[in-house]
Amino acid sequence: MRLFFSLLSGALFGAGLYISGMTDTNKVQGWLDVFGAWDPTLAFVMGGAILPMMVAWRMTRSMRPIAGGQFPPAPMPELDRRLIIGSVLFGMGWALAGLCPGPSIASLSFGGIEGLVFVLSMGVGMLFAPSVRARLDSMVPAE
Amino acid sequence: MQPEWIMGLIGGLLIGLAGAVFLLGNGRIMGASGIVGGLVDGSGRADRSDMWQRIVFLAGVFVTPVLLMPFVGTPDTNATSNIAVLIAAGLLVGVGTRLANGCTSGHGVCGISRFSFRGIIATVFYILAGGLTMVAFRHLLGVI
Fold first, then answer.
1. Which residues from chain A sit within 8 angstroms of residue B123, using beta carbons?
2. Among A10, B29, B53, B111, which one has the highest count of C-beta atoms within 10 angstroms of its own C-beta?
């Protein structure tokens, strides 16, 4: 059951990324390039994706997950250093290559050596993330 | 070919549907960086069932575009061939998304749709950082 939902979700996600054009790095860089040839496509993708999710979050109030277990707890209200620094680093990398984790996997089959280099580097970055996180936490005393 | 914003909207709805299936079916937040990251750093491999859910999800993400290719057309990622830029970008995306505990799907799609303050702030910061990076590396340095 869980595997079925995972596969269905992954397949829909891959289809959506592909059809929306988000595997095209020009569209992502075009969205971020406000001072160049600005491309608004990403806003439509984001908006389109948020709508079904808003309905889904509302539905979580009156049901349990179909495959059992619990829904995620309410989001934490506090911000922290990791969230801000991590998001800034992610945004820089996202702009440099025009790829983020989802589309980089969705385009692996046709992205050539460039896509492979990006995904492998991303994996290395993820491997180092726990030690970077530990260093970041020990650098400045916690607020 | 349809206007690009229509394709974007249709694709976006499918992405949201994917997140809804993952949430309502498995009770989990669909975040690409978390699903990949857990497999890479081992935190998502401790539990066998969890590990296979991640693998099957990613297999779906990888395979569906291959199946759609004959109908939608030959895709092009138009990615830079500058290997140094690709490596730097990959490292930044890998470290950044794991530090922030989310990327465009987890914080962006799943976070904003539940009005999560952290998701909204993360999205604001990665878009701002991305915009400034475009200014610096495209318009000032001309690297990308």
1. 87
2. A10
Partner residue opposite A129 with nearest CB, options B61, B64, B95: B95
- Residue B25, in any domain of the structure: no
Determine the distance in angstroms separating the CA of B56 from the nearest CA of chain A, rounded to an integer.
5
> Which pLDDT tens digit goes with each residue over B10-51?
999 999 999 999 999 999 999 999 999 999 999 999 999 999
Report the percentage of chain B scoring pLDDT > 70. Answer: 99
Measure A137 CA to nearest chain B CA, in Å.
Answer: 11
pLDDT averaged over 10-residue windows placed end to end, chain A, 143 residues = 97 97 96 94 97 98 96 93 97 98 97 97 97 88 56
Residue B26 domain-assigned (yes or no)? no
* Contact (Cβ atoms closer than 8 angstroms) between residue B9 and residue A48: yes
Which of A88, A115, A110 is CA-nearest to residue B95?
Answer: A88
How do residues B84-94 score in pLDDT, each as one tens digit?
Answer: 999 999 999 99
Q: Do A3 and B53 touch (CB under 8 A)?
A: yes
Count of domains in chain B? 1
Residue of A nearest to B66 (CA): A109
For residues B9 and B18, what is the distance between their CA atoms, to the nearest angstrom?
A: 14
Q: Is A73 on the interface with B (CB under 8 A)?
A: no
- Which of B33, B35, B87, B98 is the mutation pick for testing A, counting most A CBs within 10 A? B98
Q: Where are the domains of chain A?
A: 2-139
Q: Which ranges constitute the DSSP H helices of B27-116?
A: 32-41, 48-72, 83-100, 112
Q: Could you tell me if residue B124 is inside a domain?
A: yes
Residue B111 within any structural domain of the chain:
yes
